[in-house]
Design goal:
With 295 residues, the protein is mostly helical. 76% of the residues lie in helices and 3% in strands. It is globular, with a radius of gyration of 19 Å.
Amino acid sequence: MQQLLNGVVVGSVYALFALGFTLLFGVNHIMNMAHGSVFMWGAFAGLYAVTMLDAPIYVALLIGMLAGGLVSVALDVFAFRPLRRRNAPEFSAIVSSIGADLVLLAIAQKVSNTAVMRFPFDAFPVVVYTVFGLRIQLLQLVIIGLVVAMVFGLVWYLYRTTFGQRIRSVAYSEQTSRLLGINPGPVNMQVFLISGALAGMAGVLIGLVFNSVHFAMGEPLLLRAFVIIILGGLGSIPGALIAGLAIGIVQTLAVAYVSSGVAEAVVFVALFIVILVKPTGLFGRSTAAMRIQRA
């Protein structure tokens, strides 16, 4: 049960990171290969807010979200928007995001001098509750609560607000949204801002959980995000949430009882099986079904 709890906590952060990734794919139909660097810069911003500005952790969390959102918007402005204006193929966006990712990694490597940095010991209060022999940390409860709040907030924003209706309209078709009087430019910027903010929050939380922040911390998580959105279904928010939790639990149990190398293998074996049984993912729909629903 202790390892199961640890898996839920880690999986919650995985899901938070993957939510922004799948949101970008669902709206803009692009694979943002620089999303891991956005996550990393959010963690850097939160860490520097604590160590240099002596900010409390909740302020550092907000600063990490803001930094992630701004870096993501900058990616949209410099790496993706020029391609959208020229109606470039999706592969061009992937190549552009890889180049942007390398730039962000190089800057972070220079700034941090390739060092592994850590949050101060008192950055978050160490409080442990014992319930039926299960040790539950206050940090774990806060992480689960924040992820649940962000997921419900995102769903409410997308399906209960005017801005969310515009986002869903642009996701359906940019040409159709223009006919309805919606300018896709600000909507796309809004999506990148939300996606980056989610990644920035995930970066600070992961930095707190493992007390480790370094320039390459986002790359392994990007690979896991690929697995999560494929398992859950491309563009599916519930799928990203459930797949993220499942991968976090499976990895934690495998590391605890087998080995870390086997943990990665188990995840990709599960991905292989799901693709064979249901190529669209657990919550994905086939293109034909989506066309029937739209009709």
